[in-house]
Amino acid sequence: MVKCSICGRRAVYTSRTSGHSYCNRHFTDYFSKKVRRTIRKYQLFRPNDHIIVAVSGGKDSLALLHFLKKLSRYSPRWKITALLVDEGISGYRDITIKRFQEIVSDLAINYEIVSFKEELGYTLDQVVSSKHGKEYLPCTYCGVFRRYLLNKAARKIGGTVVATAHNLDDIIQTYIMNIIGNDWDKIIRLAPISGPATHPRLVRKVKPFYEILEKETTVYAIINNLYTGFEECPYARLSLRWYIRRWLNELEEKRPGTKYAILNSLLSILDILSKKTNLSLNEEIDTCIFCGEPSANPICRACDLKTRLSSIELNPDAHKRIDELKHLFTNKYRILPITKQHYTT
Ligand code: SF4
C-alpha cells in the first residue's frame, strides 16, 4: 500500500514529478493550494465578480464548480452561476446534463442552460449529419458555436467573468495543435486570462485549472463524489486532439514532467509574443457586421459557419436570418475570410 507522505494513511494520488503521495485529506490541501496559487498569481477574480462557470457536466467542470463554491466562502461578494451549453449530442450530453442538475442542486447554485437547438435552430447531431456539415470536423462546429453562445449567454446573465475548466492537459494539447496549424495568433489566447482582445461585448474568460493536470481534477472529482464514470463524446475520437492527448500521455508516462515542461514552453512563448509582436493583451477587435458579436474578422466565425450550413432544416426565424446573412454576405464578401480549422480551447 502506498502511504501518504504527510500522515502515513493510504494514499490516493502520487505526483510523479515530486514523488510525494497524498491521502484524501492531504490531496485536497495540495489541490486547493495549487489552484489558489494560480488564481492569485494571475489575478483571475475580483472581489465583486459575478462568476459564470462554464459547465459541461463532465468531471473537470463539475470539479471547478465545486471548488469555486467552496472558495466563495472566503469571497462573500462573489456571485456564482453555472452555465451549460447543450450542443445536442444524443446519448452523451443528455447524461451529463442530468448529472449537472443533480450537482447544482446539491451545491445550491443557480444555473442556466442554453442550447444549440434553441439559439441556432439545429443540434450538433443535425449539423454533422447534414450535407454541408462535412466541411469541418464536429469539434470545429461545436467549439465555435459553444464559445459564441457562452459569451452571449454570460453577458445576458450579467456575468463579469467566465471561468472554464480547461486544465493543463487541455491547454498544452491546444498549444501543440496550434503549432501544427501555425496559428500563432490563437496561441496568444492560451494565457490564463483570455486574450488578446478586448470588446465591450466580450466577457473576460479565465482558467483556474491552468496548472492542474487532468488526472488531478479526476482525483478531486472522485473524492468529492462528482465523478460517476467516463462518458465520452461520440465525436471526440475524430479530432486531432484525441491523438495528441494519447501521445502526450505516453510521453508523460515515459518522461514524467513533460507536460509541465510544455506548459513552461507555452508561458515563455506567450511572454515573447506579447513583447515582440503587436498582439498586445489589450488589443481591440472587430464587431461582426451580421450579429454584432466580437469577431476577429468582419464576419464572425459563427455567422460564417451558419451561412455555410444554411441548407439544414431550420426554424422559420433562423431561415429568415440566414437568408439575410447570405444576401449581405454575397454582396459584401465574396470570399469567406476563414478557411482553416480553429483549434482553440
Ligand atoms: Fe464538442 Fe468535440 Fe467536445 Fe464532443 S469532443 S463536446 S464535439 S468539442
List keywords for this structure.
345 residues, alpha/beta, Rossmann fold, 2 domains, 5-stranded parallel β-sheet, two-stranded antiparallel ribbon, globular, disordered C terminus, binds iron/sulfur cluster
Can you describe what's shown?
With 345 residues, the protein is an alpha/beta fold. The longest helix has 20 residues, at 138-157. The protein folds into two domains: 1-38, no CATH class; 42-229 and 240-285, HUPs (Rossmann fold, 3-Layer(aba) Sandwich). It has helices spanning 24-41, 59-71, 93-107, 116-120, 124-129, 138-157, 168-180, 184-187, 214-223, 240-254, 258-276, 301-308, 316-332, and strands at residues 13-14, 21-22, 50-55, 79-86, 110-115, 161-163, 197-198, 204-206, 283-284, 286-287, 294-295. Helix 7 (168-180) packs across helix 11 (258-276). The two termini are 38 Å apart. The chain is globular and about 60 Å long. The model is unreliable at 329-345 (pLDDT under 50). It has a five-stranded parallel β-sheet, with helices on both faces. The structure holds iron/sulfur cluster. Iron/sulfur cluster is lined by residues 87, 138-139, 142-143, 233, 235-236, 239.
